[in-house]
Amino acid sequence: MRALHKLSSLKIKNLPPGKYSDGGGLWLHLRKDGGAQWFLRLTIGARRREMGLGSVNDVSLKEAREAAQRYRRWARAGRDPIVERDRLKREAGARRSTLAEVAAEAFDARKAELKDGGKAGRWFSPLELHVLPKLGRLPVSDIDQRSIRDVMQPIWHEKADTARKAMNRLNIVMRHAAALGLEVDLQAVDKAKALLGKSRHEPTHIPAMPWQEVPAFYASLSEGTITHLALRLLILTALRSAPVRFCRLDQISGSIWTVPAEIMKGRRGQVRDFRVPLSREALAVIDASKPFERDGYIFHNARKGVISDATMARHMERRGLESRPHGFRTSFRTWCAEATETPPDIAEMALGHAVGSQVERAYRRTDLLEKRSALMERWASFVVEGGGDVISLGGARRLESDGRG
Q1: Which of 49, 91, 289, 345 is the most buried (most CB within 10 A)?
Q2: Are 336 and 347 in contact (CB under 8 A)?
Q3: What is the C-alpha to C-alpha distance for residues 83 and 113, in angstroms, rounded to an integer?
Q4: CATH code linked to domain 211-385
Q5: Where would I find the Tyr recombinase domain in this sequence (predicted)?
């Protein structure tokens, strides 16, 4: 066996630049610039390997010998010391990577896919509110089904929708951790769901106004305030509130309103925007809203930005109505089914829903605009004429300073 421990601490201090063997494959490299490093030469099978062990300033002679002995033992067992050392470093890194750190990185990676870059916080908030306060400081590799079950149990039945979103986000975070090379259980979320059992929560639908009552309500929106006008346009177009609230004059050309894809829910990542045919009544509402235009938006808030998502809902609530603005989409769809012979595909496309399979949508080159235009004109006629006299929108008055109408 080759001689070991050829060097000593005192000898090392007096050696000139060069490479010196301590025996057993352990070498010291003294550079001319004054630097000095330990390295180990090993033969694994027929392959010669050389690995650095660190600087003399950081690793003592004794520590270098201990490391060399450990790596020689691994080599004798057929394990590549460099591969094994890198694996241990990754595992140590995984133990240090907390769930909160990986969640923040996963969120950053998805921001480009989220509306407005995720600034609204809706994607991250289920994690931030219900998961990270208790699990955020734990190493992501330590997250298992039991820890997830324990943190989800308080909201699993009481706040089922929030729990579902939190689980969905957590699953994405765990997959992101796996993509980083961290050791995680990709089945932990599904296992936690099995431990929690089926949710007892019964989903409730957003209250919708019966379509027969829509004309009377529409007729009551006669004050010409921003809230009244926004509700009228919401009803006439059967859109969700976001496109209406963020409606800009430069999105409207003639009788076509082109809603950007990023504002339409469920259309994220699609190339095409959504074209909305405007009825004569809808155009009249838009004309009546123009005096309120600020920065291009016709339904601006009295202070800053556009009216909030709750503005229209609060108006209906103050009037003692159970139904809510989003429910007018249901009113419209039910009217299509019960009072017309509108083909389901056209009715669904009028709501901005995806129709048909992914393959069918890929080959479809029309949005049936003309047929939808006729349908929306007929809906507007029902909404206006079904409620009695047509209400003139010519004398619109400005919104009060508190933003309520």
Answers
A1: 289
A2: yes
A3: 37
A4: 1.10.443.10
A5: 204-376
64-68, 90-94, 139-143, 255-259: least confidently modelled range: 90-94
Asked if 307 and 301 touch (Cβ cutoff 8 Å), the reply is: yes
Strands 47-55 and 18-23: unpaired
305 backbone φψ class: left, alpha, beta (φ>0; ψ -120 to 50): left
By residue count, the chain amounts to 405
Number of Cβ atoms within 10 Å of the Cβ of 288? 20
- Order across the sheet with 47-55: list the strands: 18-23, 26-30, 36-44, 47-55
CA distances to 90, 94, 241, 379 from 176, in Å: 15, 13, 33, 47
CA dihedral 113, 116, 122, 128 (to 10 degrees): 80
Superfamily of domain 97-196: Tyrosine recombinase, N-terminal domain (1.10.150.130)
Residues of the chain with CATH 1.10.150.130: 97-196
> Which CATH code fits 9-86?
3.30.160.390
Are 249 and 293 in contact by the 8 Å Cβ rule? The answer is yes
User: Where, residue-wise, is CATH 3.30.160.390 in the chain?
Assistant: 9-86
Q: What is the pTM of this model?
A: 0.55
Q: For residues 125, 129, 133 and 136, what is the CA-based torsion angle, rounded to 10 degrees?
A: -20
The CATH 1.10.443.10 domain(s) of the chain lie at 211-385
Q: How far is CA 189 from CA 150, 160, 185, 194, 280, in A?
A: 12, 15, 9, 9, 51
- DSSP assignment of 232-273 equals HHHHHHT--HHHHHT-BGGGEETTEEEE-TTTSTT-TT-SS-
